[in-house]
Design brief:
The complex is a heterodimer of chains A (114) and B (116). Chain A has 114 residues and is an all-beta fold. Helix content of chain A is 0%, strand content 53%. Chain A has no helices and twelve strands. In chain A, a hairpin with a 4-residue loop joins strand 8 and strand 9 (73-78). Chain A starts with a strand and ends with a strand. In chain B, strand 9 and strand 10 (106-107) form a beta hairpin. In chain B, the strands form two sheets. In chain B, strands 2, 4, 5, 6, 9, 10 and 11 form a seven-stranded mixed beta sheet that branches. A four-stranded antiparallel beta sheet of chain B has the order 1-3-8-7, with no helix packed on it. Chain B has 116 residues and is mainly beta. Chain B starts with a strand and ends with a strand. Helices cover 0% and strands 52% of the residues of chain B. Chain B is globular, with a radius of gyration of 13 Å. Classes of the chains: A mainly beta (114), B mainly beta (116). The A-B interface holds A 32, 34, 36, 41-46, 49, 51, 90, 94, 99-102, 104-107 and B 4, 6, 34, 42-44, 46, 49, 91, 93, 95, 101-102, 104-110, 112.
């Protein structure tokens, strides 16, 4: 069965410093992997997705993620955090075994210090 | 493109009443729509999958008679919470997907339901 583990429930960074959000996945098939962001009391916005093309995926707002099959990881990074990056981030996996339904990680809360 | 709306954004109702939430894909046709529930500071839980013109498929543990889903057209799905109780209070989020199962799901802004 597919699943996702987000290794940090909370990440705090200073504005202008790098952000790293860690995600490990489990999938028996070639998975699709996503990162979504949710601002308070809002819906989810797609940051980026991996679907078996280039392993380094660039997304919106300066975010990128690298798919590493050997490590079953899909970590999200941003070189320089902005105050507006404070939000909840979800790593998500889908694959054929689960009819491509989305399985969400528990989420990582990002706070950005001025 | 790929905008999904939900209405209402926030609703408060009395215990025992029913509440209908609409999910619309504004600029694309959604063969499949999904309904999720999110508890405070928790992840999203898939409740059901609805395909246009057919009955919804509910996830294990979700009461289909309590959470009625209708997918009347390629741009509209509705979730009706029947005989709502305080434990149904939650954040309900829909998503919509075009034809292929591997297509991206686009999420609505969510509906905050509070049952008094």
């Amino acid at each position: 069965a597919q699943s996702v583990t987000q290794l940090d429930s909370h990440v705090s960074v200073s504005e202008g410093t790098p952000v790293l959000l860690r995600c490990n996945y489990s999938s028996s098939y070639s998975p699709s992997l996503f990162w979504y962001v949710q601002h308070p009391n809002k819906g989810l916005q797609l940051l980026l997705k991996y679907t078996s093309a280039a392993t380094l995926v660039k997304g919106i707002n300066g975010f990128e993620a690298e798919f590493k099959k050997s490590e079953t990881s899909f970590h999200l990074t941003k070189p320089s955090a902005h105050m507006s990056d404070a939000a909840e981030y979800f790593c998500v996996v889908s694959d054929l075994a689960n009819d491509y339904k989305l399985s969400f990680g528990a989420g990582t809360t990002v706070t950005v210090r001025a | 493109g790929a905008v999904v709306s939900q209405h209402p954004s926030r609703v408060i109702c009395k215990s025992g009443t029913s509440v209908k939430i609409e999910c619309r894909s504004l600029d694309f046709q959604a063969t499949t729509m999904f309904w999720y529930r999110q508890f405070p500071k928790k992840s999203l839980m898939l409740m059901a999958t609805s395909n246009e013109g057919s009955k919804a498929t509910y996830e294990q543990g979700v009461e289909k008679d309590k959470f009625l889903i209708n997918h009347a057209s390629l741009t509209l799905s509705t979730l009706t919470v029947t005989s709502a109780h305080p434990e149904d209070s939650s954040f309900y989020i829909c998503s919509a997907r075009r034809g292929s199962r591997t297509d991206t799901q686009y999420f609505g802004p969510g509906t905050r339901l509070t049952v008094l």
